[in-house]
Structures are given as C-alpha cells and as structure tokens.
C-alpha cells in the first residue's frame, strides 16, 4: 500500500470512520470546498464543473456515512465530522505535497512554486528585491507575491507562507520573527516649506494628516495615528504605497516606514526625536509545512535576506 494511502487509512481509523478505498482526489475536492466555502468557487479553483464537485462531495459523505457540510446563507459550513476530517485531510495533503512536489534538484537548488502573502508595504518595498535575489540563485523556483491589506488565511491555503505585523493568536501555525523596523512622522520638503513651522507636537494641530482608512485597519499594530492623538486622518487609503504617494505629493504629514524613504526622494522625517515608532514583521507558516524541506529552505533564505534588506534601506 502506498505511503499516502496507508496514512489515509490510519487517519480515518483515528476518526472512527471506515473507508473501503480512500480516494485522495475526493479529499482534494473536500479541502477546496472547505476553504472556499462554496461549490462554485471551489469548482473554479479546481477547474471542474460545480455539479461534479457536488457529486464528489456527496460520494465522500456516503463513503464516510457522515454529513460534512451544511449549506447556510454564508455558504458551505463544515459540520463537526467535517471539522474532524479537515485536520486529517490536511495532514494527508502535506504528505502528498512532500511526495509529489519538486524540492531540491541534483545541484541542491530550489524549484517549484512558493506563494507569499504580505501587506502591501512589505510586498512593494521589501519582497521584490529579496525574492529576486533568491530566484537568481534558484532559477527553477517560481515565486509569487500576493500583496493585500489584510491577514492571510493559511488554513485555506491562500499562500504557502505569510508575512504579518503581529503574531497570530490562534491556528495551527508556526511563527518566526523576521525583523524589527522603524516608522517616523514625515512630510515632503515642499510641504514643510509652505506650511506653518513644526517645532513640537503641539504644532501638529491644523496640519492635514495622511493615514489608514479607520474602518479598514486590519491589525491594531497599524493604528499609528492613535499614538499622535489623531482619531481620523484628513486623507486616507488602505494602501501604504498610496499613503506614501500622498505624502510625497505634499498632501500633508504621514507616518511611514523608514525602509520606504529611499523610494521617496524629497520626503523627510518630522520631529524624529519626539515621534518614533517600532514594529516587527513575522513569518507565518502552517504547522504541517515544517515537514516540507523545500519550504524550510526557502523560509531560511527569505529570513536572512529580509533582515539584511530592512537594515540596508533604513540606513540609506
């Protein structure tokens, strides 16, 4: 019996369920529906017809003698047996990935595809040069960066790994501190030349402030303006890159990452001795991926280059 099939039998036995012939393809479809919470979205990801996906789920439920999903207004929600199956199916999935996906070739080079999720500031100003350097050493590797201003769901396999600005509080995840970074209040020199002088925090009143859209702050660590006593920015965006562009164009004051300043000529720090923030980036991975050598190697390379790039840009 192949390793993955034997593992499936063992996992199902632990659930108290018997299957005459575990079918990885059915489990793959189950995982897609569990992650998408929709037959239509799962079918699109799998490149199958939604009716086919529905039949395969029904077949799996019949084989397990258990309902795996309940249809609700929010979509397909896992039942208790479905939740139990999800954990075991993910373990089988990792065994399949380890057995079938490329890893290291004969020259000890990485290959295959790695997808990284990251907030847009990190994805725009740090990851391109970091990942380009890794790719130059491993040309058989395909690197995908997904830049979104939100927290990534690794359980739904939106990415192989994600970078975040705070440690997750729950989930079967491993967390590695990547690097600390600094932020300062800034403005375009052109703005400061025409605006009222700023000699202390009391002088900030009346100046337009650039920041996050308040109801779109997806992590409390991004609520920078609260530390200035500002409750609502004058000009706002959910994107770090857009905020920096506003500051660069002289729209007002804004707290920005020090590592972005080399990309914004003419933007200078304001009251750097009085207003200075520090935050950290964390690399987050699904716990099951610790057994995937290819992802371990990539994570190590990413961490080393990432720290070096933050240091280089902040010193520039």
Automatic annotation (TrEMBL):
Transcription regulation found in the keyword field: yes
UniProt GO BP: DNA-templated transcription
Domain HTH lysR-type: 22-79
Species for this entry: Halovulum marinum
Protein keywords: DNA-binding, Transcription, Transcription regulation
CDD domains in alphabetical order: PBP2_LTTR_substrate
Pfam families for the chain: HTH_1 (PF00126), LysR_substrate (PF03466)
GO molecular function: DNA-binding transcription factor activity; sequence-specific DNA binding
Source superkingdom: Bacteria
Family as reported in the entry's similarity comment: Belongs to the LysR transcriptional regulatory family.
InterPro entries in the record: LysR-type_TF_proteobact-type (IPR058163), LysR_HTH_N (IPR000847), LysR_subst-bd (IPR005119), WH-like_DNA-bd_sf (IPR036388), WH_DNA-bd_sf (IPR036390)
Signal sequence, renumbered to the chain: none
Listed name of the protein: LysR family transcriptional regulator
């Amino acid at each position: 019996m192949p390793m993955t099939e034997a593992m499936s039998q063992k996992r199902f036995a632990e659930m108290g369920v018997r299957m005459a012939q575990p079918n990885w393809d059915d489990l793959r479809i189950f995982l897609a529906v569990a992650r998408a919470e929709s037959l239509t979205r799962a079918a699109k990801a799998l490149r199958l017809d939604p009716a086919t996906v529905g039949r395969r789920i029904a077949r799996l439920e019949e084989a397990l003698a258990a309902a795996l999903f309940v249809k609700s207004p929010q979509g397909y929600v896992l039942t208790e047996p479905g939740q139990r199956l999800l954990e075991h199916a993910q373990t089988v999935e990792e065994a399949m990935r380890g057995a079938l996906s490329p890893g290291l070739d004969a020259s000890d080079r990485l290959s295959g595809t790695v997808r990284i999720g990251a907030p847009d500031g990190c994805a725009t100003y740090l990851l391109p040069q970091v990942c380009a350097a890794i790719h130059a050493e491993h040309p058989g590797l395909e690197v995908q960066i997904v830049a979104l201003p939100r927290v990534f769901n690794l359980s739904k396999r939106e990415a192989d790994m994600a970078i975040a600005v705070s440690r997750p509080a729950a989930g079967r995840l491993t967390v590695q501190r990547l690097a600390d970074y600094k932020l300062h209040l800034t403005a375009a020199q052109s703005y400061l030349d025409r605006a009222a002088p700023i000699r202390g925090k009391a002088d900030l009143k009346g100046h337009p402030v650039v920041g996050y859209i308040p109801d779109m702050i997806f992590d409390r660590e991004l609520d920078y303006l609260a530390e200035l006593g500002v409750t609502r920015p004058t000009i706002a965006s959910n994107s770090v890159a857009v905020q920096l562009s506003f500051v660069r164009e002289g729209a007002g004051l804004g707290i920005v990452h020090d590592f972005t300043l080399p990309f914004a000529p003419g933007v200078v720090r304001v009251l750097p001795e009085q207003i200075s923030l520090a935050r950290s980036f964390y690399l987050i991975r699904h716990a099951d991926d610790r057994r995937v050598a290819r992802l371990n190697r990539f994570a190590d390379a990413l961490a080393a280059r990432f720290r070096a790039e933050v240091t280089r840009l902040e010193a520039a």
